Amino acid sequence: MFYQVYPRSFADSDGDGVGDLGGVLDRLGYLELLGVDALWICPVMRSPMADGGYDVSDPRDIDPLFGDVALLEDLVAEAHDRRMRVTMDLVPNHTSDRHPWFVAALAAPPESPERARYIFRDGRGPGGDEPPNNWPSIFGGPAWTRVTGADGAPGQWYLHIFAAEQPDLNWDNPEVVADFEQTMRFWLNRGVDGFRIDVAHGMAKPPGLPDMARVETKMLVHDDSDPRFNNPAVHDIHRRLRKVLDEYPDAVSIGEVWVDDNTRFAEYVRPDELHLAFNFRLAETAFDAAEIRVAVDNSIDAVRSVGASPTWTLSNHDIEREVTRYGGTGVGLDRARAMILLELALPGAVFVYNGSELGLPNVDDLPDEVLQDPVWERSGHTDRGRDGCRVPMPWEGRRPPFGFTTAEKSWLPIPPQWSELTVETQLERMDSMLSLYRMAIELRGARPEFAGLGIDWYGSPADCLAFRRTGGLVCALNASAVPIPLPPGELLLASAPLEGGMLPVNAAAWLV
Ligand code: GLC
Fold this sequence. Notes:
By secondary structure, the chain is α/β, with parallel strands linked by helices. The chain has 14 helices and 20 strands. It folds into three domains: 2-92 and 174-427, Glycosidases (TIM Barrel); 100-159, Oligo-1,6-glucosidase, Domain 2 (Oligo-1,6-glucosidase, domain 2); 454-511, Golgi alpha-mannosidase II (Immunoglobulin-like, Sandwich). The protein has helices spanning 7-10, 21-26, 28-34, 69-81, 100-107, 174-188, 234-245, 262-267, 289-304, 322-325, 331-345, 374-378, 423-428, 433-446, and strands spanning 2-5, 38-41, 45-46, 58-62, 85-90, 120-121, 144-148, 154-159, 194-197, 252-255, 276-277, 311-313, 349-353, 455-457, 464-469, 474-478, 484-485, 491-494, 502-503, 507-511. The model has no long low-confidence stretch (mean pLDDT 96).
C-alpha cells in the first residue's frame, strides 16, 4: 500500500503552520502502525508555491518551507529502517516561472537557445495580438501568456498548460531531457526509491500545435482527442527515463496518466516505460455496484495486455474526498469504509491519500481569503479549486489545530468538528475508520488468500457485487437498499456490524 503525503497538510514540525518533512519524520511511527509499504511525497523541491509546489524553481534542492536535502536523506534512511520505501514527486512537464531557465528565456530574444527550452511562439492576428492557438489552461483562462520584448513592446507568447507561473518545457530539446535525467539521479543517489511522475501523459506536444477541436475548460476533464496530452512522442521520453531508473535496482516510477482508452493507457506501462500508472476509474465512479464492477474490470483489463500491475485510488490532492463524493458524513463514511475493503481486496497497488484513513470529508466552506489553489483566481472566482481536500490532518486534542502545528493557526483552518476524527480518538476506537484501515491492511499483508492476480465475479443480488481472488478471498459489497445474505465462507472482516447475520446496506465484507 502506497500512502500519499501532501506535505503541507500532514504534520508541521517547525511551528509555521505549514506541514514539512520534519513532520513526516516525526510521524513515521504512525505510518508504520498503519501498515504503509511506501510513501509518495508530493513535491518538496524549491518552489515559489504558485501551485502548492508543482511549480519548481530548483528541482535538485528542497524548499526551506519543507526542510533541506539532509533532512530528506534522514527521512529516507529512517523510513528504510522501518521497511518503508520513499518515492518523490517529479514535475517534468513544466517549471516555475522563477526557474533560472525561464528568467533567462524572458531576457533573451526570440529564437534564442534560452527560449528554446520552453515553448515560445509569435501570436496570431494583426500585431500578433492573439494567442498562437486556442488551447485553454487546465486551471482556466488561455494556456498562453504574452511577454514583453527588450524594447518594452509586446513580444512572443509562451505556453502554460497549467498556471501562467508554470511554463511548459520543450521536451524536443535534448538539454531538457538531460536535465531531468540529472534530477532523477540526484535523488536516487540520495536513497530515494523512485518517483511519482506528474502529468506523465503531457510533455510531448503535437507538431505545429494545432487548435483544439472542442475547447473544454473544466479541470480534470480528459478527452482522448485533446491535443495537449497523450501525444505519441511521450513514449520515447518514458523509455529514456526508464533507462535511468534501471540503473538503480528496485527503483520504481508511477505515472499520473489521465488517458481513458485502455489500449493507449497500456502503452505507458509497457516493460520499458513506467512501472505503474494511476488508473482513476474508481475515483470517478459513484457508489453503484454496476459502475464499480465496470471500473474494476476495466482497470484490470487496461494493464493485462502488457503484464503490468493494476493500481487503485479513491482520491488524491486533486480530487474531492471520497466521503463527500459518496454522500457526506454518515452515508458517505459508510460507503468509503466499504470501498476501502473493496480496494484492498483487489490485486495490485493501492494508493491511500493522507486523511482517507481518518474518513476526512472535503471542507467546502473554507473562507474565500484562505483559498490558495490557483484555480480560484484563474477561474475568476467561479471554481473554489482543490483546497477543500487539502485541509491539514487532525492528530490529537480537542481543538484546532489538533496537534498539526504548534502555531495558533494552520495554513488552512481545520474544522472544529474534526475533534471526533483525530488520530488520537480513532486509535482508541475499534469501530473507527483508522482501525478498519489498520485491520484490513494487516490482513492483506498476512493472509495467503490475498494471493493471485485474477478475480472471478460471483452471482450476487441486484445492486450488489461479489468476487473471489485467485488465492481464495471473497469480497462482497452491498450498494442496494436492503441487507443481503453473505456468500458462503468464514467472515474475516466487515466494514459495518452484520445485521442478523446479513450484510447491511453501504457495507462490504471479506470472507475466506
Ligand atoms: C498534477 C498534480 C496537480 C498539479 C498539476 C500541475 O495534476 O497532481 O496537483 O496542479 O499536475 O503540475
